[in-house]
Specification:
The chain is an alpha+beta fold. It contains five helices and eight strands. The two termini are 15 Å apart.
Length: 262
């Protein structure tokens, strides 16, 4: 059974300019949170506090489109059919950019794909599970530090950090959210893995910023480079799931959900 690297005992914080380091005297611009890997049907969850690392260039930086796209709120678009389409198109562009960047990093591994549901239109998929989780995360804003009066479940082994993968209102986990949309029902075995990220400030909300941070965090990187995964869905929502963002805009929350059905 696969497992993630052991968490570092030294707690690090992300940077205002880069996800790798931060001076405590400067305003926070980005927050990033832990990754999780479910390695079997019964589910073994291993969560780790990400360790800071030197920022490395992404392999797909020169070939993937829209990696520096800064998501704009609905109010930035006219209330017309075209305006509503252009607003929704941003999320599709970001999902495509993230998948392109991930597959560039997975050179030598089977690329992950987005599968379109067959049969009934609008049938729920892993993408539906990711979209529901990111919407709840922005609405409930439980990510980040454990604080008095804040409803969240601490990360195992890191009691000062809220677990972004466990919805404090419903108790759902990546595995249960996948099963709720029917994932794994027709599989002899299945696995899902979830990475999450919240950033604020224009340079920290882009696909490049999110994937760079994930690739420089050992547990997130392990999920991205897990050869077992065949699917990837990335969903984004305007706003930060971590209240530490305050009123800084733009702010964006990412949920990245991988899957394998065998």
């Amino acid at each position: 059974m696969n497992s993630l690297p052991q968490p570092s005992r030294e707690q690090r914080r992300p940077a205002s300019d880069s996800p790798a380091s931060r001076s405590v005297s400067r305003p926070r611009r980005v927050a990033a949170v832990t990754g999780v890997l479910l390695v079997s049907l019964t589910g073994v969850v291993s969560a780790a506090q990400p360790a800071a690392a030197a920022t490395a260039p992404l392999k797909g930086a020169g070939t993937c489109a829209d990696i520096d796209l800064v998501y704009r709120p609905r109010s930035a678009f006219p209330d017309t059919s075209r305006g509503r389409y252009d607003f929704r198109k941003q999320a599709t562009a970001i999902e495509t950019a993230v998948r392109c960047l991930v597959n560039a990093e997975r050179t030598g591994l089977k690329p992950v794909k987005k599968y379109i549901s067959l049969g009934k239109a609008g049938a729920p998929t892993l993408g539906t599970a990711a979209a529901r989780h990111v919407a709840d995360a922005v609405r409930l804003r439980w990510w980040g530090k454990v604080e008095p009066g804040k409803n969240c479940r601490p990360v195992q082994g890191n009691p000062g950090q809220c677990d972004p993968h466990v919805n404090p209102q419903t108790g759902s986990t990546p595995k249960s959210r996948a099963q709720a949309v029917g994932y794994g029902r027709r599989c002899a075995s299945f696995a899902v893995g979830e990475n999450t990220y919240a950033g604020w400030g224009a340079s920290s909300v882009t696909p490049r910023a999110a994937v760079t941070w994930w690739m420089n965090s050992k547990p997130h990187r392990a999920t991205i480079l897990n050869p077992a995964y065949t699917e990837l869905y990335t969903k984004v929502a305007w706003g930060s799931a971590d209240p530490a963002a305050g009123s800084i805009t733009p702010a964006l929350t990412y949920v990245q959900l991988f899957g394998r059905c065998g």
